[in-house]
């Protein structure tokens, strides 16, 4: 049986794909879904997956200890992006990016490009993708250790 946390990560990927597909009308809902599910992965690991067995608890706790050890490190994806972005959004409804829409193309084909500009000027979509990759690496590591 796979980790249940992967379900939240799959939903996060679905939301990102909708954003990347140029959904300029529902971008805010997709952003909220992506950010919320990024953080939910960790909660599900701890509150659901770790209950599967004593071995699951041991491996997942070890993984969390590594994340907690990075709390003071600059450049920690979890502590610098995932956690504060989710907290600002859900606790204060702040930190939503600005949505910039560009329509490119000619008479036959229009391509809609959505850029989600963060407060620091960066595009939020690559940050979401990087965070998904970070979780995928972590879940892969946990699953590999569970198989040993």
Description:
- The radius of gyration is 17 Å and the shape is elongated.
- The model has no long low-confidence stretch (mean pLDDT 91).
- The chain has a two-stranded antiparallel ribbon with strand order 1-2.
- It has one domain.
- β1 and β2 form a beta hairpin.
- With 148 residues, it is mainly alpha-helical.
- Helix content is 63%, strand content 11%.
Structure at a glance:
This protein is mainly alpha-helical and 148 residues long. The chain has five helices and two strands.
What would the principal axes of the Cα set say about the shape?
elongated
Q: Indicate how many domains the architecture comprises.
A: 1
Structural class assignment: mainly alpha
Mean pLDDT: 91
User: What does the main sheet amount to?
Assistant: 2 strands, antiparallel
Note the total helix count. Answer: 5
Rg result:
17 Å
Q: Percent range for helical residues? A: 55-70%
- N to C succession of SSEs: HHHHEEH
Q: Could you name the ranges where pLDDT drops below 50 across 5 or more consecutive residues?
A: none
Measured between the Cα atoms of the first and last residue, the distance is 15 Å
Order of adjacent strands in the largest pleated sheet:
1-2
The proportion of strand residues reads: 5-15%
Number of strands: 2
List the helices and strands and how they pair.
Elements: H1 5-20, H2 27-47, H3 54-69, H4 77-92, E1 98-105, E2 110-117, H5 124-147
Antiparallel strand pairs: 1-2
Give keywords.
63% helix, 11% strand, two-stranded antiparallel ribbon, elongated, 148 residues
């Amino acid at each position: 049986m796979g980790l249940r946390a992967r379900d939240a990560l799959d939903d996060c990927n679905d939301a990102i794909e909708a954003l990347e597909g140029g959904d300029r009308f529902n971008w805010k809902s997709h952003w909220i879904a992506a950010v919320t599910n990024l953080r939910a992965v960790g909660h599900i690991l701890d509150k659901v997956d770790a209950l599967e067995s004593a071995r699951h608890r041991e491996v997942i706790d070890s993984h969390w200890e590594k994340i907690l050890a990075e709390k003071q490190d600059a450049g920690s994806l979890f502590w610098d992006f995932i956690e504060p972005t989710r907290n600002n959004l859900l606790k204060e409804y702040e930190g939503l990016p600005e949505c910039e829409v560009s329509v490119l193309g000619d008479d036959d084909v229009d391509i809609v490009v959505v850029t989600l500009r963060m407060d620091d000027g960066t595009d939020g979509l690559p940050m979401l993708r990087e965070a998904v990759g970070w979780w995928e690496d972590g879940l892969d590591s946990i699953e590999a250790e569970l198989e040993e």
